[in-house]
Design brief:
mainly alpha; 133 residues
């Protein structure tokens, strides 16, 4: 390799701040509650992974404080579901943690999200309990 050759440079792609409307937030909560209301996503995990990716996108665009733990847990859950050697009790722990965090956010929530977040919290905790058996 020629040490005098110019180093390739790719200019960084500017990040465009994604704007998520209240309607989109509501739709995401509604979709997730409907999905979990049918039971845990199927064994291949594709549906669950897509839903987690939606949440990651929305949470990344949020400037709301207090979401760091939820972002971390969703990323961990997505990684667990993508792995073939994840144990059910590990997923159960993350679901319970997400449920607890959703309840905290629901207590501080405005714009009518409180009830839906509390319902999501209960559903996640219940799903965690079912998996831990």
């Amino acid at each position: 390799m020629d040490s005098t050759a110019a180093t390739p440079y790719t200019p960084p792609t500017p990040e465009v701040q994604l704007h998520i409307s209240d309607e989109q937030n509501t739709a995401l909560l509604t979709d997730t509650l409907a999905l979990l209301g049918q039971g845990l996503p199927n064994a291949d995990g594709a549906t669950g992974l897509r839903e987690l990716e939606r949440w990651e996108t929305v949470l990344a665009a949020s400037d709301r404080p207090g979401l760091a733990k939820i972002k971390q847990e969703i990323k961990l859950l997505r990684e667990m579901l993508a792995s073939s050697d994840t144990q059910a009790h590990e997923v159960a722990e993350v679901l319970a943690s997400l449920g607890a965090e959703a309840a905290k956010v629901g207590e501080e929530s405005a714009n009518g999200y409180s009830d839906a977040l509390h319902q999501l919290s209960r559903t996640l905790i219940k799903a965690g309990n079912l998996l831990s058996r």
